[in-house]
From TrEMBL, chain A:
Keywords: Amino-acid biosynthesis, Branched-chain amino acid biosynthesis, Leucine biosynthesis, Lyase. Pathway: Amino-acid biosynthesis; L-leucine biosynthesis; L-leucine from 3-methyl-2-oxobutanoate: step 2/4. It catalyses: (2R,3S)-3-isopropylmalate = (2S)-2-isopropylmalate. This is 3-isopropylmalate dehydratase small subunit. Heterodimer of LeuC and LeuD. SUPFAM superfamilies: LeuD/IlvD-like. It comes from the Bacteria. One of its GO terms (cellular component) is 3-isopropylmalate dehydratase complex. Residues 1-117 form the Aconitase A/isopropylmalate dehydratase small subunit swivel domain. GO terms for molecular function: 3-isopropylmalate dehydratase activity. Catalyzes the isomerization between 2-isopropylmalate and 3-isopropylmalate, via the formation of 2-isopropylmaleate. Belongs to the LeuD family. LeuD type 1 subfamily.
Length: 195, 487
């Protein structure tokens, strides 16, 4: 996973709330067995509308998505994160994320940033008025900055450290294999096995 | 309202991290008890490392996970705590998978299961079925266990007093490799259901009403525990329906404490403990309840006595209303974001404010899914369809081949066929548009599944979530209908 410290880029204002993962990546795309090639499927149904914000060439090359509350609700499909990243997004900003989506995002290094609703709307207004607006997302300082405005955001120390180092969860866990073995020895005897 | 709107400090804990224990030992909730019981390792400033008692696998979210194992030269740590099935892609008529991409995905799971030594129930196997139906069916889902799957409706298993939740593909790989999951303990929410459900109001109506009340973000960051007499009176299948849709309220997991209903359901199932182990297990399971002096982070009360058959009109599971009422107007919503969402939804769904919900014409009825694809659901549908004919296209999809056999032993299939409905084989079917059972653009469906998102059942498809009884009654009249309307 690529380390994430600070990222500056242009943003897309997505004026929708409750963007569920079926919208982010429709089910038909989940049939793929590889981890790549999902950029075509990002918001596939909405992109058929020529007026959809991602179809506006002014936003080409944007790497930050600014969405309404309850982004990423619904299905646990991590493919939603892959689609966003493969399309080119490195950050999603929203007042509230679906839990599973937020978790999946941090596994892949797509940074989910929670900002208050009024701030999100202000940023959407800004990027709608001027698509070339540059926004900086600074994970080190835990700030979103644009022009002379500074918006702090919260993220727990551990996730921040893991994203800044670009570390893989499995490797980190296997450092504690002895503890896993110790736990296994004291599991209750009636617990079922499948084989 | 954003809960994280506080000034930043550099010693921040995850918003879901355990709250400080209050001085003067307080009781613990069921969720906390199970969580603590499964902590392999805890370190300051890090997520807990949880042991996973059961890992359910299906063909959609596992290919890339197994690939990851292969690439890093790792094995599955506990094949004996892992079980796989084919459900999302499979057709629900006998025969091969015609779509080459679906076929590849299913073949990939078969290859992976063989290579990594995982038990698999493929199409054609008598144990095959929807992943959240076969776990309980085999007695693999038990109280006090941690259960995960690369599927958000894993919350279903919480009906047994298990801690069960959905995970993404990277976490699937993590569990395969280590049988553990790093996680922060979510907050706890009690949903107290007061009074008794009126006659004709089912578990599905209850959970739809709950989601309409607290919204699709209402449970976010929380494990929900459903409590109260009405919950105690639900059968295990009813409890599974309720817990299944916890995710639609944004909850991390949903649970119901085990009781005699739970134990009776489990006793004798293939993987339930037997003999002395059964007695030991029972003694432990009886301790699995929230202490009387435990404090939940949030409490929501629902008055069961006011409920009636409930349906959705919109494009998220929270956009629902009693079947007795009318399509709302965007102006009914004070919050500008909800108002905009309602406008969008009404446009997509092709509905006019003020239209009685009973007047909405339905093209297709789907009875099935991990929400309502069990034997009691089929019995409820059969009860309505006995001696009647359907006017809509009607798919009856048993959630597993075992449910199918049970239904046939009771003659339910004959009732369905005589009514003109299609009697199918087991799979996720029309819940989610990944297999041949899909809606055409503009087609309107009364569905016993769990999501009514735009395009969920097929591009441009329009979904109304309902209970099995309402689905069956709707098939008879061709409009959204309650069973009582047919009398």
């Amino acid at each position: 996973m690529e380390p994430f410290t600070t990222h500056t880029g242009r943003a897309v204002p997505l004026r929708r709330s409750n963007v569920d993962t079926d919208q982010i990546i429709p089910a038909v795309w989940l049939k793929r067995v590889s981890r790549t090639g999902f950029e075509e499927g990002l918001f596939a149904a909405w992109r058929e509308d020529p007026d959809f914000v991602l179809n506006n060439p002014a936003y080409d090359g944007a790497s930050i998505l600014i969405a309404g509350p309850d982004f990423g609700t619904g299905s646990s499909r991590e493919h939603a994160v892959w689609a966003l990243q493969q399309y080119g997004f490195r950050v999603v900003i929203s007042p509230r994320f679906g839990d599973i989506f937020r978790n999946n995002a941090t596994k892949q290094g797509l940074l989910p940033v929670v900002l208050p609703e009024d701030v999100v709307e202000r940023l959407q207004d800004l990027t709608e008025a001027e698509p070339k607006t540059e926004i900086t997302v600074d994970l080190v300082e835990r700030q979103v900055r644009t022009g002379d405005q500074v918006y702090p955001f919260e993220i727990d120390d551990y996730t921040r450290w893991r994203l800044m180092e670009g570390l893989d969860d499995i490797g980190l866990t296997l450092r504690h294999e002895a503890e896993i073995e110790a736990y296994e020895k004291r599991r209750q005897p009636w617990l079922p096995t499948t084989l | 309202m954003c809960p994280y709107n506080e000034t930043s400090s550099h010693n921040e804990r995850h918003p879901e991290a355990e709250r400080e224990e209050v001085v003067g030992a307080m009781g613990r909730t069921l969720a906390e008890k199970i969580w603590e019981q499964h902590v392999v390792r805890r370190a300051e400033g890090e997520p807990d490392l949880l042991y996973i008692d059961l890992h359910l696998v299906h063909e959609v979210t596992s290919p890339q996970a197994f690939d990851g194992l292969r690439l890093s030269g790792r094995k599955v740590r506990r094949p004996d705590l892992t079980i796989a099935t084919e459900d999302h892609n499979v057709p629900t008529v006998l025969g091969p998978i015609t779509d080459p991409i679906s076929r590849t995905q299913v073949e990939t799971l078969r290859k992976n299961a063989a290579e990594f030594g995982i038990r698999l129930h493929p199409m054609g196997d008598p144990g095959q079925g929807v992943v959240h139906i076969i776990g309980p069916q085999f007695g693999l889902t038990q109280p006090g266990m941690t259960i995960v799957c690369g599927d958000s409706h894993t919350s279903t298993h919480g009906a047994f007093g298990a801690l069960a939740f959905g995970i993404g593909t990277s976490e699937v790989e993590h569990v395969l490799a280590t049988q553990t999951l790093p996680a922060y303990r979510p907050k706890t929410m009690a949903i107290e259901v007061k009074g008794d459900l009126p006659v004709g109001v089912t578990a599905k109506d209850l959970i739809l009403a709950i989601i309409a009340k607290i919204g699709t973000g209402g449970g976010q960051g929380h494990i929900v525990e459903y409590r109260g007499e009405a919950i105690r009176k639900l059968s295990m299948e009813g409890r599974m329906t309720v817990c299944n849709m916890s995710i639609e309220a944004g909850a991390r997991a949903g649970m119901i404490a085990p009781d005699d209903t739970t134990f009776a359901y489990l006793e004798g199932r293939p993987h339930a403990p037997k003999g002395a182990l059964w007695e030991q297990a029972l003694e432990y399971w009886k301790t699995l309840r929230t202490d009387d002096d435990a404090v939940f982070d949030k409490v929501v009360e629902i008055d069961a006595t006011t409920l009636s058959p409930f349906v959705t009109w919109g494009t998220n599971p929270g956009q629902g209303a009693p079947l007795d009422s009318v399509v709302p107007s965007p102006d009914d919503f004070d919050d500008p974001i909800e108002r905009a969402a309602a406008e969008r939804a009404l446009q997509y769904m092709g509905l006019t404010p003020g239209t009685p919900l009973r007047e909405i014409k339905i093209d297709t009825v789907f009875v099935g899914s991990c929400t309502n694809g069990r034997i009691e659901d089929l019995r409820a549908a059969a009860e309505i369809l006995r001696g009647r004919k359907v006017v809509t296209r009607t798919l009856i999809v048993p959630g597993s081949m075992e449910v199918r056999r049970a239904a046939e032993a009771e003659g339910l299939d004959e009732i369905f066929k005589a009514a003109g409905a299609e009697w199918r084989t087991a799979g996720c079917s029309m819940c989610l548009g990944m297999n041949p059972d899909t809606l055409k653009p503009g087609e309107r469906c009364a569905s016993t599944s769990n999501r009514n998102f735009e395009g969920r059942q097929g591009k441009g498809g329009r979904t109304h979530l309902v209970s099995p009884a309402v689905a069956a009654a709707t098939a008879v009249t061709g409009r959204l209908t309650a069973p009582a309307d047919l009398l």
